[in-house]
Amino acid sequence: MQQIVSAQWLHNHLDNPNLIILDATIPKVVGSAMAKEKRRIKGARFFDIKKTFSDGDSAFPNTLPSPMQFEEECQKLGINSTSFVVVYDDWGIYSSPRAWWMFKTMGHQNVAVLDGGLPEWEKQGYETEPLKKEAITPGNFKAQFNPDAVKNFDDIQSNIEEARSLVIDARSADRFYSRVPEPRADLRSGHIEGSINIPYTEVLENGKFKSKEKLKEVFRPLEKETSPLVFSCGSGITACVVALASESVLENDKAIYDGSWTEYALLTK
Predict the structure, then answer these.
(1) What would the pLDDT profile of 84-105 be if each residue is shown by its tens digit?
(2) pLDDT given at position 186
(3) d(CA 114, CA 164)
(4) Whether pLDDT at 126 is above 90
């Protein structure tokens, strides 16, 4: 299965009985609201990253839930082990790759991100509908957790000394180089020692992923890099954007630093 699909592709496969469409939208700014009445692609189900699909006991935002929690919540959404999952968000490309990464981490390979998200879907004139509650038949999804897809604080700390992996930070260059303060008031500026900066906006163009040829240029400095890649950002969301973009052009092993700069900065004060 493709990992990034077009609006036309999705529209052409709407009759697939195994298809599950998930809306993984989260606000870009805490407390913000969408500028218009919330609508969804017809039949989409809400994949709530901030609440349902995060570890509520974690001290850090957006933390990966346990395999058991992920499995149970996916079953509630009617997802089966054979489901063909397509994820989108209302911003174009922002939080949907986080859902894609979670599914891959939990062993579900049949998952893709809708390129351009809801804006592209609407631009193509395809059908949307208002939000509504619907009865969902529970699915039989089973999680098969892959621990190699996730890195924690200790992994990052030891990597600074051993340099086994290359850490790629998806935050803006201004945040990476401490030219502006972090959005979170209690968070210091800076970056992980030895990491490099590829802002997630560099892999996007007009709300969609850049072409493979343009992505090759973005990742050109890494074409001879053989080390595993670890993607980081502010809180584990946009790291997944760059990770997904790299899938088509880099064969390195890849993982996400789940706590990202929020965790690292707080634990290394």
Answers:
(1) 999 999 999 999 999 999 999 9
(2) 86
(3) 33
(4) yes
Query: What per-residue confidence (pLDDT) applies to 28?
Result: 63
Please report the pLDDT score of residue 36 as a whole number. Answer: 52
Query: Taking residues 131-143, what's their average pLDDT?
Result: 93
Q: What is the mean pLDDT of residues 253-260?
A: 98
Widest CA span of the chain, in angstroms? 53
3-state DSSP: the chain helix, strand, coil percent, rounded to 5? 30, 15, 55
Phi-psi region of 124 (alpha: psi -120 to 50; beta: other; left: phi over 0): alpha
74 belongs to the catalytic site: no
Report the alpha-carbon distance of residue 255 to residue 122 in Å, rounded.
32
Nearest Cα residue to 222 out of 261, 168, 158, 160: 168
Angle at 215 between CA 211 and CA 219, to 5 degrees: 175
CA distance 145 to 95: 21
The Cα 124–Cα 189 span in angstroms is 41
Q: What's the rounded Cα separation, in Å, for the pair 4 and 255?
A: 18
Tokens of 121: 């879907």
Q: Which of 41, 102, 233, 245 is catalytic?
A: 233
Which tokens sit at 266? 């707080």
Identify the pLDDT of residue 192.
Answer: 98
Whole-Å CA distances, 210 to 117, 214, 218, 246:
14, 6, 9, 11
Q: Do 136 and 21 meet the contact criterion of CB atoms below 8 Å apart?
A: no
CB neighbours of 205 closer than 8 A, spacing ≥ 6?
214
Q: What is the pTM of this model?
A: 0.95
